[in-house]
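Hi all, a correction to my earlier message: I attached the wrong file for Solute carrier family 2, facilitated glucose transporter member 9 isoform X3. Here's the right sequence:
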Amino acid sequence: MDYREFSVPSLTHDTSYPRRSEVPGGRRRKDWSCLLVVASLVGAFGSSFLYGYNLSVVNAPTQYIKAFYNDTWEKRHGHPIDPDTLTLLWSVTVSIFAIGGLVGTIMVKMVANVLGRKSTLLVNNGFAISAALLMAFSLQAESLEMLIMGRFLMGVDGGIALSVLPMYLNEISPKEIRGSMGQVTAIFICIGVFSGQLLGLPELLGKESTWPYLFGVIIFPAVVQLVSLPFLPESPHYLLFEKQDEAGAVKAFQKFLGKADVAREVEEALAESHVQKNLHLVSTLELLRDPFVRWQLITVIITMACYQLCGLNAGLVIERLGRRPLLIGGFLLMALFFGTLTVTLSLQDRAPWVPYLSIVCILAIIASFCSGPGGIPFILTGEFFQQSQRPAAFMIAGTVNWLSNFAVGLLFPFIQKSLDSYCFLVFASICIIGAVYFYFVLPETKNRTHAEISQAFAKRNKAQPPKEKSTPL
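and the right structure:
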């Protein structure tokens, strides 16, 4: 297949699409077409937003859900539930979201290649809608199993969404704005976390009579994505390489880029595919054994673990300030506000304004998380490893991410029960440990090539990284 066959006069000279304008110096202006904006917003709202929302939404109605579990148990068995059993059930309710995430992550490779990126996101809405209905009506049905199953299905939705959405956005966007498109996912995760906290306030839905609606809200972003995505094209990369639909790929490129001449984009896609076919993909076991990337792998694992274990389940300034200061500064600020939150929780009965200060601390923790830790871990995983190593690296990073999420969900109720308001000092300690590690180990990766990043780790790895090989076109 020759890319030059796509550069036909009918496409090159068609004026039905506006051309990307030029700026002095021969550089192309980084235009966002209307369709790219719609795809990124709709995709993120129905996917990564839901992931962030479901990380935080279970916090506010905790006491009401426990009361619901106790009442349901008493009606079934004739006696109140044992406190330890109640704590275990609550831990399962929170942590099963991560188990679903692992299942969804494992499903992605097969489903995305068979159905395509867009169709996978469409089908994925079925998990979210089913989960919303199960959880919203669990109280009325007096079924704690419905709530737990709903949490599991939302985890499956999150596992699929966090893998397929970045893939889709990366493949539909020109390389000049791929970094910005990728940040949309991280930004909407943080918006979701904030929305879950906000709607959980007692003045809104965080009340005994309305807590099921907190979970019913999930249905709206899913429906928005479900009715919007059919009007967007499939990924041109998927059409070109999986379906061998050259005409469909060209049309998709034209619609997403808002121009008729897409010969350059098709050429780049074919060149990328040619390089990938001539690379040996490293397995997970091979990557774990590779001494040339040992410290890169350790750093990714610690970053992903801190991402979840920091106690909160990125920003537009990443390219300006750099990864290293934002990651270190974000975790240190989170540690500071976790410490302040511990003090305010201990003193909340001393004055009527202290509980409001606790809310400010929570919002400050979320803001600190969004300033760096919320998005940088996913960027570093892509920057640390060469092309042939990335699939295995993302698999390891994703596994650590979801297992850490599971650990927090399972263990936090017991930690809270043992330490009460001092439980947040555990998260503050993890943030400080992570910040210290990054200060001494993590090099700045902003505007650096993979070779330069590998050289920065070479001394710690005590080995020079091998050069990435590719076969010329």
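Sorry for the mix-up. The chain is about 70% helix and 0% strand.
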